[in-house]
TrEMBL record:
The lineage of its organism: Bacteria, Pseudomonadati, Pseudomonadota, Alphaproteobacteria, Hyphomicrobiales. Residues 2-70 form the HTH gntR-type domain. This is GntR family transcriptional regulator. GO terms for molecular function: DNA binding; DNA-binding transcription factor activity. The keyword Ribosomal protein does not apply. It comes from Hoeflea olei. Keywords: DNA-binding, Transcription, Transcription regulation. InterPro entries: GntR_C (IPR011711), TF_FadR/GntR_C (IPR008920), Tscrpt_reg_HTH_GntR (IPR000524), WH-like_DNA-bd_sf (IPR036388), WH_DNA-bd_sf (IPR036390). The keyword Zinc-finger does not apply. It holds the Pfam family GntR.
């Protein structure tokens, strides 16, 4: 995908979501999209094929193009975030839960496999984080760097690609989480503890620390969504306790 296409896709998605939302999920036609963006129908067709592969849209014979955000996977969620589209509460809860599962395992593997280069990069991120806090700035970018470097330390490229999608999907929300000074300090202190466990090759401790660290973030987003009137959609899927 070239630069022009990578810039066009988010704009196309944002327009489709906006127009389809007011039209029973039905998106504009290829011709209408080409006219709106002043591009060729060929470029629109190629971009729609990508969106269809990502399960963001569905072409229905003799009916048109329809938005299917309920089917969005991780790659789709990352694209929606780049387009400035608000994710649905269920997608947010599921992504946060899945990220926690993946990164706890990543901490275990990183403790076993991290190279000196991985550890040096983590030290550098921690040093920059300390300076960032001293300057009164948030850690929303450095937090992603730290966590993804741990995933990189697993030496599993597929693992890294999956977890990168989590951060791409949540990039717009991280500045909100790191908006408070005390949260930045707490997160940095926990990062240092996790690094120490990785350095000492203590995979059990690294897992436990990551579980606590991400559990705190998970609780925060649950509170934010519920405060805005959104119920945790995963609660409805849980079986009732037997009495």
């Amino acid at each position: 995908m070239n630069n022009t296409e990578s810039e066009f896709l988010p704009a196309l998605v944002a327009h489709i979501v906006k127009t389809a939302g007011a039209n029973g999920d039905k998106a504009p036609s290829e011709r209408e999209l080409a006219e709106h963006f002043a591009v060729s129908r060929g470029q629109v067709r190629e971009s729609l094929a990508i969106l269809e592969a990502l399960q963001l849209i569905e072409r229905r014979a003799k009916s048109g193009i329809y938005l299917t955000m309920d089917s969005a996977g991780l790659s789709s969620m990352a694209l929606l975030a780049r387009a400035g589209v608000q994710l649905m509460p269920r997608q947010i809860f599921e992504a946060v839960e899945l990220r926690k599962i993946h990164e706890i395992k990543a901490a275990e593997l990183a403790a076993q496999r991290a190279t000196d280069d991985n550890l040096d990069r983590l030290r550098d991120i921690l040093a920059r984080s300390e300076k960032q806090i001293a300057d009164g700035l948030g850690l929303h970018r450095l937090d992603g760097e730290f966590h993804l470097e741990i995933v990189r330390a697993t030496q599993n490229e597929m693992f890294y690609k999956i977890c990168s999608s989590f951060y791409a999907a949540s990039e717009q929300r991280l500045p909100i989480y790191f908006g408070k000074v005390e949260r930045n300090i707490k997160s940095h202190n926990e990062h240092m503890q996790i690094f120490d466990a990785l350095y000492r090759r203590d995979s059990i401790l690294a897992q436990a620390l990551m579980n606590t660290h991400l559990g705190r973030a998970q609780s925060y987003w649950t509170e934010i969504l519920e405060a805005s009137g959104e119920k945790n959609p995963l609660q409805d899927a849980l079986p009732r306790a037997h009495v």
